[in-house]
Automatic annotation (TrEMBL):
Pfam families per the UniProt record, alphabetical: ADH_N, ADH_zinc_N_2
InterPro entries assigned to the protein according to its UniProt record, in alphabetical order: ADH-like_N, ER, GroES-like_sf, NAD(P)-bd_dom_sf, YIM1/Zinc_Alcohol_DH_Fams
Natural source organism: Promicromonospora iranensis
Coiled coil: none
Protein name, as recorded: NADPH:quinone reductase-like Zn-dependent oxidoreductase
Enoyl reductase (ER) domain residues: 10-321
Amino acid sequence: MRAVVRDGYGPVDVLRVATVGDPEPGPGEVVVRVAVASLNMADLDHLLGRPRVARLGTGLLRPNHRRVGIDVAGTVETVGPDVAGLRPGDRVWADLFEDGHGALADRVRAPASALSPLPDGVPFDVAATVPHSGSLALQGLRAAGRIRPGERVLVNGAGGCVGPFAVQIAKARGAVVTAVDHGDKLDLLRELGADEVVDHTREDVTRGDRRWDVVLDIADTRTVPALRRTLAPGGRYVLIARRIGSFAEKALLGPVVGRLTGTRMGVFAWRANRRADLAELAGLLTTGAVVPRIDRRYELADTVEAFRRLGSGAARGKILVVP
Ligand SMILES: NC(=O)c1ccc[n+]([C@@H]2O[C@H](COP(=O)([O-])OP(=O)(O)OC[C@H]3O[C@@H](n4cnc5c(N)ncnc54)[C@H](OP(=O)(O)O)[C@@H]3O)[C@@H](O)[C@H]2O)c1
């Protein structure tokens, strides 16, 4: 079978499509025939080995995992010993971030515990866009506490992989949503239901008079003192971290500043593949409350091109790779 592999950290040129042996499921594992995979910023981070401190977990000099790709939707093909609840032919979806990667392949071996059943009503190409970025958006918003109808929600850095899910989930909760990004991503965000869009190259939301009840920060470019100014009394700020230094600042300083200013500021502990979250996301997909935007589809052989597009920032929606 074919699989996208890499032998070291580096830019997209380290990737190649190789012919490898068919995977055999071990105890507690299954082999999934990949229908569709999608790319996330986390794939690019993993490829580049950034931030460097993450290499403590992913391999200091060389990556522990040669395989690439985390978001997968497909069909269970073979089931190893000691697997309950999954059978060949079952439709499944998963984020393999913590489970060996390898979604960019004809087949992938994964622990059964990483896989969730995919309802029949959710097509594979829609499902593949969701597990990583949809879960981050859902868990990030949840960390801000229950969103009440009419609350003002700011999604900062809304036009990438995670933001479109956050905008649509917040709208589904009845929020009035402001989405911050730039260029023609703002048109996409309006189409997705944002009530207001802000171009960060023209307006600094930390400088105006406006305040929000909830701020979900995906761009991760500002400090706690600046971000505090975006919050209404009792407002809640949650960071989806891109940088270790910023994560530490928000985790340590955020709660202190929050307490002093009558707000809540901080980070959250993200968990991949929470079955309840994927079930909730499936519900949002089937009711049409969340409609993932697909940018382009690439063949497995064109994965390098797919990564180049991801890295260029030009994508307007999720990038799919179809074996
Ligand atoms: N626990 C955690 O917090 C956790 C867990 C897993 C993953 N992550 C990380 O979370 C991140 C998820 O973000 P994502 O995938 O949605 O990233 P993304 O696709 O890069 O989206 C970020 C968006 O923000 C825009 N942007 C850049 N600078 C901005 C600014 N100053 N103000 C407003 N918007 C700005 C970007 O535009 P341009 O690209 O055009 O500049 C882009 O559209 C990934 O880096 C992932 O590794 C965090």
